[in-house]
From TrEMBL:
Keywords: DNA-binding, Transcription, Transcription regulation. PROSITE patterns: HTH_TETR_2. It comes from Nonomuraea rosea. It comes from the Bacteria. Coiled coil: none annotated. Pfam families: TetR_N. PANTHER family: HTH-TYPE TRANSCRIPTIONAL REGULATOR BETI (PTHR30055:SF234), HTH-TYPE TRANSCRIPTIONAL REGULATOR RUTR (PTHR30055). The keyword Transferase does not apply. This is TetR/AcrR family transcriptional regulator. Residues 20-80 form the HTH tetR-type domain. Residues 43-62 bind DNA.
Length: 214
């Protein structure tokens, strides 16, 4: 093996790591810019300056503004720099493995708190921009519908324990969870009323147990 080939093989992982670091810096900077400025006022040059990279680097690493914003939303839901399907997320798998409804609720409420800490400010930007942008309005509806479908799966998982109230349909259970874990609800209590995220988590789990379990 020549020295040239060796150098090329050894440098490839380093370049890949640098690319990931650049992408992470762009996402972190973009989040701050979108939250502070809102979607309409935020610009890619601002994101590039905040990340310490060239504008072309932002386009090459992530994409244009709508693509970047969608990636921020998806990554915030997943808890990393890359989107992860709901079924593959760690807390979803732990919910499925839990045997009691109370344990499933506690796991999900604990997962909701960091998700809302990441996603709620971005949802404000998305909500405000969706009134003027058809594509963002479609993204808003898509995420709301996806959440509703996931809440139906959660309701089915709770029902399998035999511990749900018998006077509630699965759709009603799903709708209760869907509405109370929404970013808007989190913002009302944490940002507007001054609750701590920890208090929100405890209250959410307690509310679900009281409302949904027999």
């Amino acid at each position: 093996m020549t020295d040239h080939v060796k150098a090329r093989r050894y440098s490839s992982p380093k370049r890949a790591e640098q690319a990931l670091q650049t992408r992470s810096a762009i996402l972190k900077a973009a989040r701050a810019v979108f939250v502070e400025r809102g979607y309409a006022a935020a610009t890619i040059p601002e994101v590039a300056r905040a990340a310490g990279v060239a504008v072309d680097t932002v386009y090459a690493a992530v994409g244009r503004k709508p693509v970047l914003f969608r990636l921020l939303i998806e990554s915030a839901l997943s808890g990393g720099d890359h989107p992860v399907e709901a079924e593959q997320r760690d807390y979803v798998q732990r919910i499925r493995q839990a045997t009691s409804a109370g344990e499933k609720i506690a796991i999900y409420a604990a997962a909701i708190r960091p998700i809302q800490e990441r996603i709620a400010p971005l949802f404000v930007a998305l909500r405000d921009a969706s009134a003027q942008d058809a594509k963002l309005a479609a993204l808003w509806r898509e995420i709301a519908e996806r959440r509703a479908a996931n809440m139906r799966l959660f309701a089915q998982d709770l029902a399998a324990t035999g511990e749900l109230r018998t006077d509630l349909t699965l759709d009603e259970v799903a709708d209760v969870v869907w509405s109370t874990n929404a970013p808007e609800y989190y913002l009302l209590l944490v940002h507007d009323r001054g609750w701590t995220p920890e208090r929100f988590e405890t209250w959410l789990a307690d509310t679900w147990r009281r409302l949904l379990l027999a």
